[in-house]
From TrEMBL:
It is found in: Nucleus. This is DNA mismatch repair protein-MLH1 family. GO terms for molecular function: ATP binding; ATP hydrolysis activity; ATP-dependent DNA damage sensor activity; mismatched DNA binding. Keywords: DNA damage, DNA repair, Nucleus. Belongs to the DNA mismatch repair MutL/HexB family. It comes from Klebsormidium nitens (Green alga). It holds the Pfam family HATPase_c_3. Residues 722-748 have a biased composition (Gly residues).
Amino acid sequence: MDTTQGQQAGRTGPAPIRRLDQEVVNRIAAGEVIQRPSSALKELIENSLDAGAAAINVVIKDGGLKMIQITDNGHGIRPADLPILCERHTTSKLKEFEDLQSISTLGFRGEALASITFVAHLSVVTMTAGQTHGYKATYKDGVLEGEPKACAAVKGTQITVENLFYNVTARRKAFKNVGEEYSRILDVISRFAVHNEGVSFSCKKHGENRADIHTLAASSRSENIRSVYGSSVARELIPIETSDDDPARSRFKMGGCISSANYSAKKTIMVLFINNRLVDCSPLKKACEAVYAAILPKASKPFLYMSITLPPEDVDVNVHPTKREVSFLNQEALIEAIQKAVEQKLLESNTSRTYYTQSLLPGVAAPAPKSPAGADEGPSQAVAATQKAHPRNMVRTDVLQPVGQLDAYVTKRLASARESPDDLAAIRRTVRQRRNPAIASEASELTSIQELLEEVNAGVHQGLSEIVRSNTFVGMADDTFALLQHKTKLFLANTVKLSKELMYQQVLRRFGQFNCIRLTPPAPLDQLLLIALDEEEALGRWQPNDGPKEEIAKVLSQLLVLKAEMLREYFRIEIDASGALHTLPLVLDQYSPDLDRLPQFALRLGNDVEWDTEKECFQTLAAAIAEFYAIHPPLVPRPDPFRTKSAGKSERGAADSLESPPLAEPGTAGNPEEGPEALDEMSGHERHQHAAGPCHCGDEREESGGGEKRRGNGASSRQAAGNGGEGIPGEGTSGGGVESGPGRGGGDAASVSEKEPLEDGNERGGEAGLALDAGRNGSERNGTEMCRAETEGDDEAAAEAVWAARDWNVQHLMFPAMRLFLKPQKFMATDGTMVQIASLENLYKIFERC
Ligand SMILES: Nc1ncnc2c1ncn2[C@@H]1O[C@H](COP(=O)(O)OP(=O)(O)OP(=O)(O)O)[C@@H](O)[C@H]1O
Ligand SMILES: [Mg+2]
């Protein structure tokens, strides 16, 4: 009652109570059961399932408002029942109220068809087994109109609902968007299709030949999921089941599948069936979302399919007119148990997660697409839209093709998924070491590796170590530089150089004990090399007189095949006799390198590694891997409408930013001279990388001079460093002033326990702590849909996602890992890797006073 009516009633006294017309009652009741086209369809599907149908076909006109037609091959309706078929409270499913306690059919009230007839025109064609013909009957307001007419039919039932809400103008007007109603219809059918293995479903718009959903009776559940929700969901599913049988706590069984940490969408899709009823349970959904929230990037959501079976006596199915809600005993305990199971599953899968990118290197057969045509539309489209491509995961097969246009997929498997006898040996070695950590692995016993590690230790810069260990990440200042605060000072940190050094040191520490990232299908080296050489040519770094590219590619790939045993044993780079690259080392847990850079990595392996002496070989290999795994700015330009100059390629972006360091304003730095100077020095270095050829990795050797091959900023820079290499540009003498304050970092490091870096990656406390978050490495989320998204002109959004993933990696993966594992080198203090740009000491004191 609104206020006016209330006031009126107050003035004139109570209005008389009248009995409503039955027609009004029925229409009100019908409005509760049939709220929109999709709820009418849900009722009709449930009837078909109750009738034992194995095929259910739906045709929709105008979002179901004009027509919903459902045809099934169930047991049909007896002709004698047709006169009362649509009367309210007529049902073949329930006799006594007590039956409700053990009801196994989806319907029980005898209300659905009746409700539909009060708000729409309904006709039925039906035939039972053994009849020679069927009958057609039409209904209005619950009543059969005329006599059922004999007609040709097949066993089963076809129900046609037309002009829904024709007599409820307000409701009809509320459905302006027929497209949205159709989506809701597809959503309902999708859910039933996933749950009901053994029943085929199809749905199409009236007048169209192609079905938007089509599943087969013989298909498995995961095939159904693939067919309706798309392969990006289906391939990331982990089976899950749990149960409880303690009457004091909860009694249930739950089976289903949930998406792994590799999958994320904008909206949670939760397909939930309780005792085969399609229901919603928001507390359960929220509980599951909470588990994923710790793993997935912000605002990314999972896919969940769960079928819960409860003792019928524990469930009340009759709590909502649409039957979309049920109440059950011990809901909290059940939700808690399921939440735990989800958590457990995700943690398990986190150590054996699979990363896919789409790839189709020339000559490699594409995996046959499994989803039917219909999968391109409807719900799978919704998934596609949320599953943005990360072009950096796409392996380019043609230098001219934009990043991310190709079909490729990469599988990352950890130690648990190792299969070959060599893997067994590796596992045995790891176990042996774990039992007796004092025994170093054969590989790390190699003196050359020890020497390289000692060099790293000897080269540590104490001042930088302190900064790296306890800084606060402020943000990215540009494509390459991060802004860090340490105590009262601000620093610009070159993320590429820092991450390169981090990876280099990690390679040395994990030497001979890598887990791996598996490429599926394997990438033929000669083709990777050709791509890299094409890139070189495009950059003017390959000239015809260097020799035919095909020839160079062949020779280099043959060379790598010859070195395959060593590469596999020590670096987990597996190359088969045909020259196909199978695996890459897992250098930092949960991080996979930018696969767009794979061709250049192959070229660097083939061209720049010094194979002759052991130490140089390991050093140059580690450097090549570090270069590849460093967190570079993505190759796609960062979309930025306000930017006048496109960042372009990574090195370019770095160079741009170096020409005008955004934060290095004269006068703000502790030593205004040194900051920009160091930056200029580095910009020269970066530009040099462009100029070097034919393979730009060669530049590092040049810069580092004879002895220091791995780092371009090696020996010469080290020697150049003042104070025995301990100076930090711009730091001056003001270090050590204020001990506490906003710059006091180290929180992350403290929260992640450090473990012996030589341990197996998966056991590493420190990195395991980072592992969950690492799922946010957006690069791992992609699929065919992504290519679709790309081709649909969504490049900008895709590029944004790639950049967001890169920035995320820098902040949440690289910096925390650096705090734990990086031993910053002296040369980094002078080559622009870390530059102090401001001392906030005075400013800080002002704040402190405030
Ligand atoms: N597709 C069908 N095939 C065979 N019988 C059907 C079909 N649809 C309806 N019926 C018969 O019509 C009856 C009435 O259906 P209706 O949906 O109105 O009620 P219900 O399914 O019994 O209960 P509820 O209102 O809870 O759905 C059913 O009990 C069933 O016997
Ligand atoms: Mg029913």
